[in-house]
Design brief:
The protein has 283 residues and is of the alpha/beta class. The chain has helices at 4-17, 60-74, 92-106, 124-132, 153-162, 186-195, 199-211, 224-237, 244-258, 263-277; strands at residues 32-37, 40-45, 82-86, 111-115, 137-142, 172-178, 215-219. It folds into 2 domains: 32-214, Rossmann fold (3-Layer(aba) Sandwich); 224-277. Strands 2-1-4-5-6-3-7 form a 7-stranded mixed beta sheet, with helices on both faces. Helix 4 links the parallel strand 4 and strand 5 (137-142). It is globular, with a radius of gyration of 23 Å.
């Protein structure tokens, strides 16, 4: 006769080996989520850290392209995957979050924003499988996306963007930001070229990843006038009440100590200035 305790221990061991049951997904629990692949779940974000789209200065063309594409998608119309690349701190990720907020302001509840970490790109097919069954439209967002040597995850991303045999779900778009134009370092592409039987095909394999994005939008460093416009916009929005001459002088000094001008540097200056003036800044 088999010992009942032995049977119980075997059953417990099998339960530990079995994969966890999938956590039910409620896509209307929030307007934004963070993807956690192990165990697979979408964690709701109650409040997204963002700035209003009207405060993003110096990127008017980029703003119109991203906003138009996002609004089309939110309204149930065809839209493109988007790559926002270029200079650091010029509002790439801020623009994605602001466009998402604007879309939901115009069409409430229409669009969910799902953030995926760079290291979890390989799990994109699983996330797509979950979202395919959902009625709500979703933008998957990966910030600061790039690939290094010996990194094959780009193949998973390429497959997802192409859609594979099932095709990309109609309710899903993919937005990414990167400081690199082609997502991969030049020496990685050159190395593939030097060791390949057909060098041209090796380069095409690497560069073609960017071609999977229907929108490919560049961001560039700003000049001083644009930097001042950013500062003035923030100062007015948050009621800092500092004269233009003094505001500009302090902004120039701040940008010199930071080694450059950008939207991020402008925001950091405003945070410092508001703190010194005793003004609470809430995004």
């Amino acid at each position: 006769m088999i010992d009942p305790n032995l049977l119980e221990r075997i059953a417990q061991a099998l339960e530990r080996l079995a994969p966890p049951a999938p956590i039910p997904v409620d896509m209307h629990a929030a307007d934004a989520f963070v993807w956690h692949p192990s165990p697979a779940q979408l964690a709701p974000v109650r409040k997204v850290s963002r700035v209003d789209i009207s405060l993003l200065v110096g990127v008017d063309r980029q703003k119109s392209l991203v906003l138009a594409n996002t609004l089309q998608f939110a309204r149930g119309l065809p839209a493109n995957n988007a790559m926002l690349w270029g200079a650091r701190g010029m509002g790439k990720s801020s623009l994605v979050k602001a466009a998402h907020a604007q879309a939901n302001a115009e069409t409430p509840g229409s669009l969910a924003l799902i953030e995926i970490a760079r290291e979890d790109i390989v799990t994109l097919p699983e996330l797509m499988r979950i979202l395919r069954a959902q009625p709500r439209r979703c933008v998957i967002f990966c910030d600061d996306l790039s690939f290094e040597r010996e990194d094959a995850d780009y193949k998973a991303l390429k497959s997802v963007l192409d859609g594979g045999i099932e095709g990309r779900p109609e309710n899903v778009l993919f937005y990414a930001t990167s400081n690199r134009r082609h997502l991969m370092p030049r020496d990685m592409i050159d190395n593939e070229k030097s060791t390949a039987i057909n060098p041209g095909e090796a380069v095409e394999e690497k560069v073609s990843l960017s071609d999977r994005f229907g929108l490919w939008i560049g961001f560039h460093n700003c000049d001083q006038d644009t930097f001042f416009a950013m500062i003035e916009g923030y100062a007015e929005a948050f009621g800092l009440g500092l004269g233009a001459e003094k505001l500009h002088a302090e902004a120039v000094e701040w940008s010199v100590t930071r080694g450059g001008r950008s939207g991020r540097v402008a925001w950091q200056f405003i945070q410092d200035l508001a703190g010194r003036l005793g003004v609470a800044v809430r995004t």
